[in-house]
Amino acid sequence: MTRGWINITVLLLLAIPRIATGQSGGQDELGIPFPSEHYAPPEYGQDPQNWDVIQDDRGLIYVANNDGVLQYDGERWRLLPTTTGTFVRSLAADSLVYVGAKGDFGYLRPDSQGVLRYTSLYERIPEDERNFEDVWGTHVLDDGVYYQANQRLFRWDGSKITSWSSEKGFHTSFTVDGALYVRDFGRGLLRMEGDSLELVPDGETFRETPIYMMARHPSGDLLIGTQNKGLLLYDGETFRPFAPGVTSYLQENDLYHGDRLPGDRYALATLGGGVIV
């Protein structure tokens, strides 16, 4: 899995009326510039490869970087390394910032001097469940924090760790309206139901089809983004094509991530064609 190379660019998508595709006087617009803050590696002083970006409840920016977690307060960059100095792949936040790393996961919390530092949960993992590598997804839900690696899905509830394994591996994971969805290479699209990962109706559609985005559609259906099948809507029973006009674009440019914006808009990030809304 690859994500975000070379530079950090904070996209101010909320201020954009349209990007790449949109309607204005009946004309499609392509390649509209949008405002951004661009930070090259010499400015933040760490590895050029970044994997995830979040903002906490204080407005601070955190970036998952190969050297650790980067924190930015609007003026200064600071590195918060993991215990063993491993790559950081994913982040999530509520009152704390949770960290998914290579072969490790944990969270950031102030030490006795009030300095924010990484706290690993590795030693709390049962020894026979420590055979995992990159934690590609980190999610905060009501029943705990979920850390998704290829080999296992872990849940930290504040006192103990519970895990689920996959015979062929977990690929991606998403949260929508407080529900956790996980794509399993061997089974398809799963949803966490209590303490069990259950195949959703028609979820076997995704045994061979990677999922790169999931969000709620205004209709109430789930909007799912793929590279080879484009966008799909899911009503809880079946998946059906949506906005077929962008399918070829997503196929040619490799959809890699997406999210819902205010005003019922969606930002779709591709590896080869930039961002479309």
Oligomer: single chain
Q: What is the helix/strand order?
A: EEEEHEEEEEEEEEEEEEEEEEEEEHEEE
- What is the makeup of the main sheet? 4 strands, antiparallel
Low-pLDDT runs: 1-6, 11-28
> How many strand elements?
27
Average of pLDDT:
88
> What is the rounded Rg?
19 Å
Strand content: over 45%
Order of adjacent strands in the largest pleated sheet = 5-6-7-8
Q: What structural class should be given to the helix and strand makeup? A: mainly beta
State the distance separating the first and last CA atoms. 24 Å
The number of helical elements comes to: 2
Residue share in helix: under 10%
Overall 3D form: globular
Descriptive report:
With 277 residues, the protein is mainly β. It has a domain at 174-276. It has two helices and 27 strands. The protein has helices at residues 41-44, 247-253; strands spanning 8-11, 23-24, 27-28, 36-39, 50-55, 61-65, 68-72, 77-80, 88-93, 97-101, 104-110, 116-120, 135-141, 144-149, 152-156, 161-165, 170-176, 179-184, 188-193, 196-199, 213-216, 222-225, 231-234, 239-242, 255-261, 265-270, 275-276. The strands form eight sheets. It has a four-stranded antiparallel sheet with strand order 5-6-7-8, with no helix packed on it. A four-stranded antiparallel sheet has the order 9-10-11-12, with no helix packed on it. Strands 13-14-15-16 form a four-stranded antiparallel sheet, with no helix packed on it. β26 and β27 (275-276) form a beta hairpin. The longest helix has 7 residues, at 247-253. The two termini are 24 Å apart.
